[in-house]
Design brief:
5 helices; alpha+beta; 2 domains; 9-stranded antiparallel beta sheet; homotrimer; 17% helix; DNA-binding (chains A, B, C); DNA binding (chains A, B, C); Proliferating Cell Nuclear Antigen; DNA replication (chains A, B, C); DNA sliding clamp PCNA (chains A, B, C)
Chain lengths: 264, 264, 264
């Protein structure tokens, strides 16, 4: 039997809003350690990894490891019906082909339960090794979202270049070019407003803005975002989920870009 | 001659917004007692009854009973042009085929008059007898609106079931099922936040969510809604209009529903 | 070389938002006195004239008069990427076929430069003589915008009539007629809330509401609007730009209107 009670139910609503447009169907994996998901986006280009550790739940009971296949669009529809202050409980009986989401209002006057059919989804779990990155940028998540949105009005791809002084986001399109530089800046009033750059060596990589924009839908989950870059690895865009875990997006850099520019 | 002056003009704007999508054309009936309307929705399934008593107007002159046929969409367009703090006066000369809406800004610096053609509309006035209901639920109008909206994302119909403990709203659709229970609750800080259930006998009735959602457009008129249920009568969804009257929506329960479910 | 630094960059964003739907391509003219634009709308009915005087810029360097042809839609796209508190610098090298917009965040942590291709645009500069007007109305810009929007829901044209007592805006359409009168009113708490009428002789002119509505997009630039009317001249709808200049819209009155109404 599975019973996970999350007092801050709005977290789960935000998680669904951040991945439902990227991934259609996915298995949620439940074990003693936590509630997790790993899935490729529908065009098999980006990877999403979610972890909500068991300690973050007010009540966490998971008798045996189970994997529950869900349509994320439908799950998001149901979670949208939870109030922002509601307590959300996820329940499933052993062997059942349904999952129940229960929403309790803070005053306990209103109690809703939504039951959803589970699906069989083939999926292979990729091992993602811990890796060394050439550069790690931590910056306000709203700033990163704004930059990705702004550059999308000019071009389709973004070149992210990191030096000791700062991180530069560049694009070019039919109407012109754009460069946005964010300087390292740690002398801010609030730590979440800092832009912090850890760099082992300079790096410059190109990504599709469409995916970056999709990732930034997770911005409501965290005031900061961490971007880990390496020329040999997919970029990791990570949003921490308050004391519970994280949502991470992986995206391989584009490599054709520079060849295109070298043409006459 | 007719001249009705309503200081709180925004009330009339809200009334129009709550019925203009349900009813296309209707007769407004004016008599010494008040300004009223009774109309079927365009698919002849739901009935709307509006009453604004003469005492609620700052000035109310109606020399003889008249019935003015109006296109509610056009009337709503004109009333949209009134400011929220404007005083609205409805004027019509005897035998005239037009009605004039006058809007005065609170400072009297801006005065607008909008003149609209009247229409001839055939309509029969239904007598609605006072009736005994099996159960009467009073609850916050915003809560009822939220529940109808939430359930619409899952199914097309709602089963409303009342017991002494509370009222349950249920639906089912392709993606699953949903049940929302609101408990009787009278120990609240503000009386308009209470959920109060008067029950003579338990009742469980099925309604089309499309209409319920349409009725909830009247929520800005009142912080509470009263739902009167009886297995032999249409449900009445009533919004009081501050010390002036009410808007009531009548809708017959669906009866096929249970037969459908008894099929294999 | 050209380098214009505007601390209140949001002004430029608002200017673009107010004209980008009216004019597609236009030459910006730069001289020692200021940054200006004069352009007909795409259907050659209305004229826009913009002036930002050099004194309004924190730094203003313009070595020689130049005219820069820009696509206003693209320019607006780029300026949309500037934050509302950003300092905007417009830069162009002599003989260059590009212009650069630089956006600096108030804390200098984020610096963006957007480079846009210039265009060759044929345009003749019309001399607009200072003229005497029959009547000049100054009123709150939000009020004027509201009136134009409201009347558009009833008809296509507005008759603006000025007498000593006030200014009347009228329209008629299929669903009826509308008249809105704003009285002269100078005893207000804030000077920008006044409606002030200077009248040499009464005037009554008809204009296309589509254009008036388009002009009111400049409302965020100024809390008041000045409407100068004369039966022999195009109307001038002027929004002052805080201590820097103005944006003026010119539109010829419609003359067929009255003949139409005299028909049986």
């Amino acid at each position: 039997m599975l019973e996970l009670r999350l007092v801050q139910g709005s977290l789960l609503k935000k998680v669904m809003d951040s991945i439902k447009d990227l991934v259609n169907d996915a298995n949620f994996d439940c074990s003693a350690t936590g509630f997790s998901l790993q899935a490729m986006d529908s065009s098999h280009v980006a990877l999403v990894a979610l972890l909500l550790r068991s300690e973050g739940f007010e009540h966490y009971r998971c008798d045996r490891n189970i994997s529950m296949g869900m349509n994320l669009g439908n799950m998001a529809k149901m979670l949208k019906c939870a109030g922002n202050d509601d307590i959300i409980t996820i329940k499933a009986d052993d062997g059942s082909d349904t999952v129940t989401f229960m929403f309790e209002s803070p005053t306990q006057d209103k109690i809703a339960d939504f039951e959803m059919k589970l699906m069989d989804i083939d999926s292979e779990h990729l091992g993602i090794p811990e890796a060394e990155y050439h550069a790690i940028v931590r910056m306000p998540s709203a700033e990163f979202a704004r930059i990705c949105k702004d550059l999308s009005s000019i071009g389709d791809t973004v070149v992210i270049s990191v030096t000791k002084e700062g991180v530069k986001f560049s694009t070019r399109g039919d109407i012109g070019t754009a460069n946005i530089v964010c300087r390292q800046n740690t002398t801010v009033d609030k730590p979440e407003e800092a832009t912090v750059i850890e760099m082992n060596e300079p790096v410059s990589l190109t990504f599709a803005l469409r995916y970056m924009n999709s990732f930034t839908k997770a911005s409501p989950l965290s005031s900061t975002v961490t971007i880990s870059l390496s020329s040999e690895l997919p970029v990791v865009v990570e949003y921490k989920i308050a004391e519970m875990g994280y949502i991470r997006f992986y995206l391989a850099p584009k490599i054709e870009e520079e060849e295109d520019e070298s043409k006459p």
